[in-house]
Write a structure and sequence with these properties.
8 helices; 45% helix; 14% strand
């Protein structure tokens, strides 16, 4: 009820997760591109990964609030007990793994929260749907389609040494079949 409503207004909430086990892959998205994210999550779960999908109702609001918290925490009069934690940092506290934001908008929108995100945050964005192509063709072109989301999640885990070279190769072969 109220908690859910507050999270929506604050800018984001956990939409779904594979299980109670810690997620290895976090997919952040909203709007029409959420269909690709859910399809990617399904593929990643079939590969054996725990996935959390985060509905990001407002990257701008999360960034604005995080900046306000930083400003308040820099205040010369702020004591240690006065220090606040942003909504964004509370959302992802204790989470690790690959964090992939996927948006139909310019990547810069989702990059606005990068300073407060855990290690492994990456953004896939369209940077303008102004081409006269079909949506599926455009999503493939801008690499925000299901395959790109799966590929980015896997390479992100690999970059952080969370999966081996062998595991990466095996999973990438599976998605290109």
């Amino acid at each position: 009820g109220d908690v859910y409503k507050r999270q929506i207004l604050q800018g984001g909430y956990c939409f779904s997760r594979t299980s109670d086990a810690p997620a290895q892959i976090h997919l952040l998205s909203s709007g029409s591109i959420m269909q690709q994210v859910m399809a990617a999550a399904s593929q990643l779960e079939k590969m054996g990964f725990n996935v959390a999908i985060w509905s990001m109702t407002s990257f701008v609001e999360l960034q604005r609030q995080a900046m306000a918290v930083d400003r308040s925490n820099r205040d010369a009069d702020a004591t240690a007990k006065d220090q606040q934690v942003s909504n964004l940092e509370q959302m992802f506290a204790g989470q690790s793994g690959a964090f992939v934001a996927v948006t139909d908008y310019m990547a810069s929108l989702a990059l606005g929260i990068a300073a407060w995100m855990p290690e492994g945050y990456e953004v896939l964005g369209t940077d303008g749907f102004g081409l006269s192509e079909s949506r599926p063709a455009l999503r493939a072109h801008f690499e925000v389609d299901t395959q790109a989301i799966v590929r980015t999640s896997l390479t992100n885990l690999h970059k952080q040494a969370l999966i081996s070279d062998k595991a990466l190769s095996k999973h990438l072969r599976a998605i290109t079949k």
